Amino acid sequence: MLLFFVYACNNNDLAKKVPEKTDSSYAIIGKVTGLDSGTVYIIHGQTGKIDSAALDHGYFKFSGKADTAELCRISLEDKSKIFFLENGKISMLIKKDSLRHALISGTKTEDEYNYFLNQTSKPLTDRMAAVEKAYNDANNKKDKKATDSLDKVYDALDLEQRQLISEKRFKTSLRKQN
């Protein structure tokens, strides 16, 4: 019996036959800095379904099962950010006043998306960050005209970013087909 155990531990072919366990659900664990209570929402892009979680000392969590990777929005106090929801462990770190710059990671699709944003669309995301800073400054000064104008600029940049993402997905799917 001892010889069999030693053989099994040293035999790589036997180890390759054991199937890897795959995670068939998602768990989102998040923290909102600067906000202890409130509600965080997830809006599912494909179904329109809305899930909510209460903040407990700034922490929140969601869990469920995703059939495929799905583009969703996380929403907090009338601000939102898109992310990819798929099975696995997802971490979110959100600053109360800067949801658009939340750090979301943990799954393959989200990590690839973050890489894309940081590499391919960096000039665009830098412009979006500058507009958001100007928006926050105008909002602190209660300058409604400026915030309305900057909100429109940000929406246009957001649309441009979505089109860039769609182009990238289209080109990637073409490469996979060929």
Task: Describe, in plain words, how this protein is organized in 3D.
The protein is α+β, with helices and mostly antiparallel strands and 178 residues long. It has 2 domains: 20-106, Carboxypeptidase-like, regulatory domain (Immunoglobulin-like, Sandwich), CATH 2.60.40; 120-178. The protein has helices spanning 2-10, 12-17, 108-119, 122-140, 144-177, and strands at residues 26-33, 39-44, 50-54, 59-64, 70-76, 79-85, 88-95, 103-105. The strands form 2 sheets. It has a 4-stranded mixed β-sheet with strand order 4-1-7-8. A 4-stranded antiparallel β-sheet has the order 3-2-5-6. Helix 4 (122-140) runs antiparallel to helix 5 (144-177). The chain is globular. The termini are far apart.
CATH homologous superfamily title of the largest domain: Carboxypeptidase-like, regulatory domain
Q: What is the architecture of the largest domain at the second tier of CATH?
A: Sandwich
Mean pLDDT: 80
Helix and strand sequence: HHEEEEEEEEHHH
The tally of strands reads 8
Largest beta-sheet characterization: 4 strands, mixed
Order of the strands making up the biggest sheet: 4-1-7-8
Low-confidence stretches: 1-22
Oligomeric state of this protein: single chain
Count of folded domains: 2
CATH class placement of the largest domain: Mainly Beta
Question: What helical percentage do the residues reach?
Answer: 40-55%
**Number of helical segments with 4 or more residues:** 5
